[in-house]
Write a structure and sequence with these properties.
Layout (H helix, E strand, L loop, with lengths): L2 E9 L6 E4 L5 E4 L8 H14 L6 E5 L5 E7 L2
Parallel strand pairs: 1-3
Antiparallel strand pairs: 1-5, 2-3, 4-5
């Protein structure tokens, strides 16, 4: 099983959902949801899964659950 680590910078309470990748390879994800009770985290995983065209079950936040910088593990099948 191959694993990949993705660095993410999050903006909550944005006007719309979006994903971009900066020059350093950091994914910048915007979500309209507030960081309340994990709502934004769940939305971030959903947005990233759609962007990468993989199931949400293959993504896990391994660091940064309560910050705007996150490390997400992608498990390849």
């Amino acid at each position: 099983m191959e694993r990949e680590v993705i660095e993410v910078k999050v903006t909550t309470r944005a006007k719309e959902r979006s994903v971009s990748v900066d020059k350093q390879g950091v994914y910048r994800i915007k979500t309209p949801l507030p960081p309340d009770k994990g709502r934004a985290n769940r939305d971030i995983v959903d947005i990233l899964a759609r962007y990468l065209k993989i199931p949400k079950s293959r993504l896990t936040i391994i660091r940064g659950r309560t910050t705007n910088r996150k490390i997400i593990k992608k498990i390849a099948q």
